Amino acid sequence: MPNEFLPATDGALVDWSRNFGQIISADPHTLGLSEVDAQTYQSLHQQLAAAVLACAPQIRTMGLTAHKNAVRAELKALARRLVKLINGQADVSDQQRIELGLSVRSRPKRATVPDEAPILKIRAVQGNRATVSLSSETHRAKPPGVIGATLFRFVGDQPPASMDAWQFAGNFGRSTITCIFPTSVPGGALVWLRACWLNSRLQNGPFSAIQSAHLQGAVIDTAGRLAA
Question: What is the pTM of this model?
Fold first, then answer.
């Protein structure tokens, strides 16, 4: 499918879907959606996440795999329908589309794959939020052809060598990013972050150096409130 924005693998699709569902649920009307749209999508996302988990190699069966494939097809169909509605909204910016994980309309100049890695610095940690900044060695702002960045995160004693073990944290159209870790991650946990530049065709460049920090004890929810 031309301009396909949905990831091909189950794990990547679940990560993309989690990010998409959280954003549309936070403010569906701004994106041209209804609360029912967001709730229906979140329900399907939860079903897909559970079905993918149930299809781990050591426990999957033909029945579980068939169920997972059916839920996956239903979620992808709904995602495409909602994205058509979002793309029909004149007020939805390119930055919002980037953060949703969607393709941005190509500019007249052909988009090239970014050829340099961003410089990532962790500026602050508050509760379960880490604020990072991205910069370029060669330009004051983003490099030419770059519209944003993709951020990845990991929780553990050592960062994994394989990108398959890193978790997609979102696409961002700005250079200062707040990464919110799940409230299940305990205070004091060691977390790792890395990023890469992103062009208008959602193609990524080289990865930044990996940076780490310890989360603080107070946990902050997605609305910016201290969690109980």
Answer: 0.59
